[in-house]
TrEMBL record:
The keyword Lipid biosynthesis does not apply. It is found in: Cytoplasm. CDD domains: NAT_SF. It is an enzyme of class 2 (transferase). Acetylates the N-terminal alanine of ribosomal protein bS18. Keywords: Cytoplasm, Transferase. This is [Ribosomal protein bS18]-alanine N-acetyltransferase. InterPro entries: AcTrfase_RimI/Ard1, Acyl_CoA_acyltransferase, GNAT_dom, MshD_Acetyltransferase.
């Protein structure tokens, strides 16, 4: 899938150091995913996609799915690429995968991340609950959001 100069492709183990760099830059004051966490997600066969511009990893997204439900684990876009539709592109790719399976999908999002909340709502997610002090070590709260199964 390509939009302008950005292309999506399966995330590879070779991309993990770049993923970790994006994590560290985007989530100061939190506990960013380690390289081992990314490798584990890939080793477990979860669905992970990278967004690439001129062979540079500029974002990534991933989910785990079963026959009953899916959970979006992460969507992140490098700061200098935010606001250009890369997050939307990654989300739509994940949702297309979820819709192939035909299951509901869930996620957590910081309560102060208004752009992400608006993106999720625009794609059929509803707020289901609140998880107090979900993000550590900052103690930031998260909304649990969900989208019902869609028929393809």
């Amino acid at each position: 899938m390509t939009t302008g100069t950005v292309a999506l492709a399966p995330l590879q183990h070779a991309d993990v150091p770049a993923c970790h760099e994006i994590e560290v830059a985007l989530f100061p004051g939190e506990d960013p995913w380690s390289e081992d966490a990314f490798h584990s997600e890939l080793n477990n066969g979860n669905y992970y996609r990278g967004a690439y511009a001129d062979d540079e990893l500029i974002g990534y997204a991933g989910l785990a799915a079963s026959a009953y439900e899916a959970s979006i684990h992460t969507i992140a876009v490098a700061g200098h690429w935010q606001g250009r539709g890369v997050g939307k592109m990654l989300l739509r790719d994940l949702l297309a995968r979820v819709d192939e399976i035909g299951v509901p999908v869930f996620l957590e999002v910081r309560t102060d991340n208004e752009p992400a909340i608006a993106l999720y709502k625009a794609h059929g997610f509803e707020q289901l609950g609140l998880r107090r002090r979900y993000y550590q070590p900052s103690g930031a709260d998260a909304y649990t959001m969900g989208r019902p199964a869609q028929s393809v």
